[in-house]
Design a protein that fits this description.
The protein is an alpha/beta fold and 297 residues long. It has 13 helices and nine strands. It has two domains: 157 residues, 3-Layer(aba) Sandwich (Rossmann fold); 121 residues, Orthogonal Bundle (N-(1-d-carboxylethyl)-l-norvaline Dehydrogenase, domain 2). It has a six-stranded parallel sheet, sandwiched between helices. A three-stranded mixed sheet has the order 7-8-9. Helix 9 packs antiparallel against helix 10. The longest helix has 29 residues. The N and C termini lie far apart (67 Å). 43% of the residues are buried.
Length: 297
């Protein structure tokens, strides 16, 4: 039997995931707090539209949440769970952090609903292809029950008990955003010495540092004005905040992540929050001292 899917949250990533599920033949009902987005996805995919999270879950075997943060997930579950039917499994693909994932699991357990924390790795391009990396935390039996849906979205790795998926995603994002921040800085310093962004990417493409991230993010760094926002700087800063909390919880006295978070917060203060995460390049360029100055005050 094909599983019926309720999908809560159709932002950039959620939209692409619904497209893939519909393409794979799943019956999908979508809900979004901003209703116009749900209607747009329905027009694109043939999905049904629900006015509330509870209605999205009404006939579903699995509900996927793909929301902004842990607070949004917990608010949505508070609306969804009171009327949830027996046997439902909630799969949270949001980036929430361990604490929110475990709180969500507790809420689901109290309502007799299964829960899997299953954040995803990959941008909109990867989501559109159905090639996401999915980090599943939770009971093996629950994961197996929803595996057909997860397999349609990409490759699933069961990383451990409840909360482990969230923990893995925070670590992945910490690496992603510190790498992206360092890349932005290096593009600016190389350009100041006469190496164009195009040339530096050409060198990276034939070296050991090349990876899928550089492949699909190259346009955002090379042609920021002509490339649509895929992952905004405000969300990247939120993710770095979760990673900094993880560093605190691990007892790290020094942290590259904390410094990257500070830099991102400065970029937000300077009004770049709605731009793509690659806009850290523009921010580094904007704060650079005039040529010839060797010391900062």
């Amino acid at each position: 039997m094909t599983l019926r899917v309720g999908f809560c949250g159709v932002g950039r990533m959620g939209t692409e995931m619904v497209v893939v599920l519909a393409r794979q033949g799943f019956a999908v009902t979508v809900w979004n707090r901003t209703a116009v987005r749900a209607l747009a996805v329905a027009d694109q995919t043939g999905a049904e539209v629900a006015d509330t999270p509870a209605l999205a879950a009404k006939d579903a075997d699995v509900v996927i949440t793909m929301l902004t943060d842990g607070d949004a997930v917990l608010r949505t579950l508070a609306e969804l769970l009171p009327s949830a039917r027996a046997g439902l499994i909630v799969v949270d693909c949001s980036t929430t952090g361990v604490r929110a994932a475990r709180e969500a699991a507790d809420l689901c357990a109290a309502a007799g609903v299964g829960f899997v924390d299953c954040p995803v790795s990959g941008s909109t391009v990867v989501a559109r292809e159905g090639n996401l990396g999915l980090m599943a935390g939770g009971d093996t039996a629950a994961i197996d029950r929803v595996r057909p849906v997860l397999d349609a979205l990409g490759t699933v790795v069961h990383v451990g008990p409840t909360g482990a998926g969230a923990a893995a995603k925070v670590s992945i994002n910490a690496l992603l955003h510190t790498f992206s921040t360092a890349l932005a800085e290096c593009l600016v310093t190389a350009r100041a010495a006469g190496v164009s962004t195009t040339a530096l990417f050409d060198v990276l493409a034939v070296g050991v540092l090349w990876n899928r991230f550089l492949d699909y993010k190259r346009p955002a760094f090379s042609d920021p004005e002509g490339t649509a926002v895929a992952f905004d700087l405000r969300t990247a800063t939120k993710d770095l905040g979760l990673a900094a909390r993880a560093a605190d919880d691990a007892g790290l006295r020094e942290s590259v992540v904390r410094r990257a978070l500070e830099l991102h917060r400065h970029a937000l203060d300077d009004g770049l929050g709605d731009r793509d995460m690659a806009a850290m390049t523009a921010w580094f360029a904007a704060i650079a001292d005039p040529p010839g100055r060797t010391e900062r005050n």
